[in-house]
Amino acid sequence: MKAISMCMIRVILAIALILAAMPLLAADEAYDPLAELSLSELLNMQIDIGSLATRTIFESPSTVSVIDRDMLKRYNFKTVSEALNTIAGFAVYPTYHRRDLPTARGILQSQYANKVLVLINGIPTWNSVTGTASINRVGIHSVERIEVLKGPASVLYGSNAYSGAVNIVLHSPEKENGEVYIGLGSGEAFASGGNYGTSGDDFKIFIAGDLYDENGIDYEWTGHKVENQLATSSFNPYHNTKNASVVLQYQQHSLLFNASSSDEAFFGAGPEWRFGAGRPHYEDSYLLNYTFAKSLSEKINLAVGVNYDWNETDFSRSQDDSIRNVWSGSRINSFIRSDFQISDALDIEVGADYDYRKADESKSYETRTDTTIVELGIADQTVYEYSLFSQLEYKFNSYTTLLGTRMTHNEFYGTDYSSRGTLVWTLSQRNSVKFIAGQSYRAPSLFEIYLYSPGRVVGNPNLEPEKSTSYELAYLTSFNNFFIQALVYYADYENKIRRVVKTGRLLTYANGNDFNAKGVEIEIKYDNPNLFNGFLNYNYISGNDGDDDGIGNYNFKYIPRHSISLGLSKKISGINIAALTNYWTETSGPVEEVDAQYSIDLKLGYSHKLSSQTIHHGLSIQNLTGRDVVFPEYNRRYADLNVIPTEFGYGRRIIYTLTLNF
After folding, report:
1. Higher pLDDT, 454 or 354
2. Of the residues 53, 373, 396, 614, which has the fewest C-beta atoms closer than 10 A?
3. What is the mean predicted confidence (pLDDT) over 222-239?
4. What are phi and psi for residue 558, nearest 5 degrees?
């Protein structure tokens, strides 16, 4: 009865807003907010990721991809993960344990997403117990742009930026504005939220809240019901998220708060009905940051800050949901950074970080009585890590060189040095060549060290940190209505942590053998309002089998060699029409080959203005063909489970969104 009531409320709200907007359709001539945006905004944009000082994409000492406000609006992405799937060399894959794992340059994230760092306004956020980073803890309507760095980023950000980093930048208002929106669609999809921002001479305020619920279309799935007995049943791939963000800035002081809660479908602690498949997977988190930033002089800048990051994960371990696992933990991170402009040609950045990680709770419990069944060995465990880094940038003629090193000392694993070097050759204002060499470092998580799940998985205190080294050559150019970024790279990976059999059915964590990969990434943007707007992103990757576990499993066995993302947008009679397709070539599964996969989305948008308000209508038809899009199940590799459906694999979805901007 409660579910019916909530559904009726949502329908009534959506109908009320649609009816309220109808009289406005003729109130003013068609209004297109995209006409105010252009490719030049992207090229002149000061991006934050890849450098401690803001740079344009041509000047950045790292290879950075940006999904800007223009692209977010044109293609009407409903989540950050959907937007990230368009980036060359980047993908968001599912496992049986989680649905949205960010993956850079094909380095698979196994049980937990701890190899790609996620930042909100430049502030790192991840689970202190597992290292997991969540990319959907910010609603897409609150996002100004998404900055993506592929490859090692430890010199800038320390541990967990092993294969890449994603910086989600929230709106930063230059004047008073805001929006409210509501969406309704198939699969009982419902979205609502809003944001408000204002600014003055010495302050800025931004407040946002978002809710997204979707049940999706039932998926027929085969999993173990009891040992050696298969059962096929309907699996509902629902996904519900709520999040809120607040940014307050006053003179040199800034405060960031983000809170997120998600409830999503789960394929089980092992991909079996008896291990909780079909039961909910909960995740709650909040992040609080304070930063003081001040220019001490024309040539010296200082930033000091502290972060508190808390996360909790709760998931089922039984078919009747009577047994669940929960773990929670927190991180306290403090930092100091300074930039010294020695001369017009020479700039030095220095800084220090201190990170304290603690596991608060870790247990299996009986849901009806909340009685602890077994402690999982992680509760009250702690680890500290501190680091010092410096970067030197020198400019001469048309060349810019950057050399940087971070010294990281981990309580358990001693001292490590990660370095990077970049040479940027500026051919002209819109042409540059970059050569980049970089290293990364990730210390094992508390989960990988201390976990004790009797008869299932145990941690390993003798693990070594994961490391990587990459070399890349990139060319960036812009001419006429085009922007092109093309690069080739080679990367070595050491000590990747994975689960292996210890005895019988008992698993543990161990370091794998070294392996390597090479790849090509090409990103092309075209902006011509008189003709069309579009992008074409292509990725090629080829990795060896150096990390083969002895029974034929290795990282790049499960990675498509080629992938393409293509988007086209055109305004016709006041209606913006956009089409988006993603394509991956065939790859191997644990049992048999997985065919080439593709998805096609169609987006329609119409905007009009009444006085100072703008009304926008958006219609999204996602996965237009309705075909299941799947990815190899590379984690447990059960003989009867070859694939897991991706976000695109749950059938066709139609979503209408009404937005009021003021």
Report:
1. 354
2. 396
3. 68
4. -105, 10
Pairing of strands 562-572, 575-584: antiparallel
pLDDT tens digits, 516-553: 999 999 999 999 988 999 999 999 999 999 999 888 89
Residue 47 pLDDT exceeds 90: no
Q: Check whether 591 has a pLDDT greater than 70.
A: yes
Give, for 164, the enclosing helix (H) or strand (E). Answer: strand 164-170
Domain boundaries, position 349: 2-661
Question: Cβ distance 125 to 119 under 8 Å?
Answer: yes
Residue 454: how many CB atoms within 10 A of its CB?
11
E strand or H helix at 419:
strand 414-428
CATH code assigned at 166: 2.40.170.20
| pLDDT range class, residue 20, cuts 50, 70, 90 | very low
Mapped onto helix, strand or coil, the DSSP state of residue 99 is: coil
- The model's pTM is 0.91
Tokens of 165: 């980093």
Q: List, in order, residues 6 or more apart from 465 with CB less than 8 Å away.
A: 410, 413, 416, 441, 442, 443, 444, 495
**Is the backbone of residue 623 left (phi > 0), alpha (psi -120 to 50) or beta?**
left
Q: Do residues 376 and 451 lie in contact, with contact meaning Cβ atoms separated by under 8 Å? A: yes
Calculated CA dihedral for residues 59, 63, 68, 70, nearest 10 degrees: 80
Cβ atoms within 10 A of the Cβ of 640, count?
Answer: 13
pLDDT the model gives residue 39: 67
3-state SS of 182-234 is EEEECCCEEEEEEEEEEECCCEEEEEEEEEEEECCCCEEEEEEEECCEEEEEE
Over 70: is that where the pLDDT of 171 sits?
A: yes
Contacts of 637 (CB under 8 A, 6+ apart): 553, 590
User: Which contiguous run of DSSP H or E holds residue 361?
Assistant: strand 346-366
Distance CA 658, CA 180 (A): 8
pLDDT surpasses 60 at 12 = no
pLDDT classification of 111: cutoffs 50, 70, 90: confident
- Whole-number Å distance between alpha carbons of 457 and 451: 7
Q: Is the dihedral of CA 638, 641, 642, 648 positive or negative?
A: negative
Amino acid type, 457: V
Which residues, including other chains, have CB under 8 Å from residue 291's CB and lie 6 or more apart? 253, 254, 256, 303, 304, 305
Angle at 145 between CA 337 and CA 194, to 5 degrees: 110
Q: Are strands 189-199 and 203-214 parallel, antiparallel or unpaired?
A: antiparallel
Q: How far apart are the first and last CA of the chain?
A: 37
Cβ atoms of residues 381 and 359 within 8 Å: yes
- Domain total in the chain: 1
Residue 224's pLDDT is what? 57
Q: Report pLDDT digits (tens) over 328-359.
A: 999 999 999 999 999 989 999 999 999 999 99
Which residue, chain included where needed, has tokens 């980093």?
165
Residues 112 and 131: their CA atoms lie apart, in Å, by: 7
